[in-house]
Design a protein that fits this description.
By secondary structure, this protein is an alpha+beta fold. 38% of the residues lie in helices and 22% in strands. Strand 6 and strand 7 form a beta hairpin.
Length: 350
């Protein structure tokens, strides 16, 4: 639910109610069957009864609000908040020190305005205690070149700043909480299942991102004729369906066998995943090359040898290897002594 649906004030009430009722947090783990399950979130739930008015009638229903905090997002947010508090405190203390190229602050109002600007800049409102000490001094200026002697009053302001530890702790504890809403009873959808279902849901936006970006590259579009534009979109939508199907089939196969695949991440061949993307799977075949040699110099076709990773991907997708091997008589790297490289350049390479 968005911040408009659940503003920060409502979220604060949810967190306060949990503390008052001493409700325990539910730890959400991924890969429970592994030796070291990964804790990805913690959550609790609150039952609410929303009411709306439709055609003069009040309609009320029950909802379960799952209040969830991602471990990774919370750690990053808390680290960022601590750094911002530290940086703001440092800049506030430096207001007491004259700096080259900076206007010296002399009035209390100048200090207050500058402190307010720094606090707003780092978004640490209510987390720092700023105090001002005003000291007024008088000094006598002697007469000079016909000007009479006079007494000059000067104000000296000293700023001190401390972190409000109580407010900071409360802010750290409230970092990165999000609210999911469901009308499913807890018997059908537990807190853990709700969090995992939300994380694994199909995102329509991902399809649009693929359609507009790599590898389909619908945008930018340089076509002008309406029928060309329509045809291109329909053609690329077929490609989008293939990418989605490829990813779905691979993830389902790995999930059914409770396995992970490795060797598809560039520069990190040992990294494993149970949820590979279609782009990673296709990139694994990037170096597979089919070379067709003209009849005049042999008339053979050569296919780059498939690695164990390629075989594993094809098996998981239930794609026969013969689809590739039937294109050629040889499944091996092109012999360096058979054909001079210059003869291969003008001919088919795909």
């Amino acid at each position: 639910m968005s911040a408009t649906q659940v503003p920060e004030s409502v979220l604060s009430i949810y967190l306060m109610e949990r503390e008052q009722t001493a409700q325990e947090l539910t730890a959400v783990y991924r890969d429970l069957d592994s030796v070291e399950p990964t804790k990805i979130a913690e959550a609790f739930e609150i039952e609410v009864n929303p009411t709306i008015e439709v055609e003069g009638k009040e309609i009320t229903w029950k909802e379960r609000h799952l209040v969830v905090r991602s471990i990774k997002i919370a750690d990053a947010a808390q680290k960022s908040l601590k750094e911002r508090v530290q940086q703001a405190q440092l800049e506030l203390v430096q207001l007491n020190q004259p700096r080259k190229g900076k206007k010296r602050l002399t009035q209390l109002s100048d200090y207050e305005n500058e402190a307010e600007r720094i606090i707003e800049k780092y978004q640490v409102e209510g987390l720092l205690k700023v105090e001002y000490a005003l000291e007024r001094k008088t000094r006598q200026k002697r007469a000079y070149q016909g000007k009479p002697a006079q007494i000059i009053k000067e104000d000296s302001v000293t700023l001190s700043v401390q972190v409000d530890e109580v407010a900071l702790t409360q802010k750290l504890n409230s970092c990165s909480w999000r609210v999911y809403a469901t009308n499913s009873p807890s018997e059908q959808l537990s807190v853990t299942d709700g969090v995992l279902a939300y994380r694994d849901e199909y995102l329509v936006e991902k399809g649009f991102s693929r359609l507009k970006g790599f590898p389909l590259s619908l945008a930018p579009m340089y076509l002008q004729r309406e029928d060309h534009i329509t045809g291109l979109i329909r053609l690329l939508s077929i490609g989008l369906r293939l990418l989605t199907l490829l990813e779905f089939e691979m993830r389902r196969s790995l999930s059914q066998n409770n396995e992970k695949i490795s060797g598809i991440y560039p520069g990190n061949p040992k990294r494993k995943t149970a949820r590979p993307s279609s782009e990673l799977l296709l990139a694994a075949f990037k170096e597979i090359t089919l070379v067709s040699v003209p009849i005049a110099v042999g008339g053979n076709r050569y296919l780059t040898k498939f690695s164990p990773v390629h075989h594993q991907i094809l098996i998981r997708l239930n794609i026969p290897l013969k689809i590739y091997t039937n294109l050629t008589e040889h499944e091996a790297p092109l012999p360096s002594t058979s054909v001079h490289p210059s003869l291969l350049i003008p001919h088919l390479r795909e």
